[in-house]
Amino acid sequence: MAANDSVNxxxxxxxxxxxxxxxxxxxxxxxxxxNAWNYMLDNYTKFQxxxxxxxxxxxxxxxxxxxxxxxxxxIPYMQKYKIQQDKPxxxxxxxxxxxxxxxxxxxxxxxxxxxxxxxxxxFNIPYGWEEMPKWYVLVAQCFGCAVIEDAWHYFLxxxxxxxxxxxxxxxxxxxxxxxxxxxxxxxxxLETLILGTGFFIGIVVFCNHVILLWAWVICRxxxxxxxxxxxxxxxxxLHLVPFYAGARFHDFHHMNFIGNYASTFTWWDxxxxxxxxxxxxxxxxxxxxxSTKKKFN
Length: 297
Description:
Elements: H1 2-21, H2 30-43, H3 46-72, H4 91-113, H5 116-122, H6 135-160, H7 189-206, H8 210-227, H9 246-256, H10 267-272, H11 276-296
Helix pairs in contact: 3-5, 3-8, 6-7, 6-8
């Protein structure tokens, strides 16, 4: 009974969004995107699209999304938004991070990406323009992937902090107490495999078109680079996402090493009380700010 009610609610929500979408103006970028997509299908094989296309999407998205945080370190005005202001980025750390990233991307992640084509073939995932889901379906699917990945990340990430195994795997990621965007995928190869598994679970559950693979890659990179950016910038559109953790939440994890284990949302840490030290830290900061204001008044 409850399952039927849930299905009815989802169907009603889908119809409501579809109805609203019918009143929205046409997207001026839709036709150029359609032309580019069909050109890709006409000129490249499915293997090339699934493998090299996925690699290009990942690499281009990763380093382009890192650019704002990288540029911020050279802009004095942006330093007031840096969370750990006493720990600036250094060229030495960034170069070390970049070299490790290249190794992880091409020797760990690329072999996994090579399996994308076989995944789409095995599950008969379409590539065509006509089969591509509506934008709101894609948004809902990416949100579903984020919920699944967040749950996986919370429990496995917390396990990697266990004192018996922390120094062997997860300690690599914590070399940087004050994170920066490019460090998002700086990790031990085993961690890349363990935590990266959560990324693929949502794909297996929701994927009905190859476009979801790329959309979810971009969404996940956008989130993880943001929370590792080291900057809490106002008017960040990601803060509109319900229960979004954000940079301050994850930055505290790097600074404190304990608590705030989730990747995207705050609910698992709230349920299990692993955000208690973060809440206490925020309250202490608030009291210090009030005391400072009183001194100047």
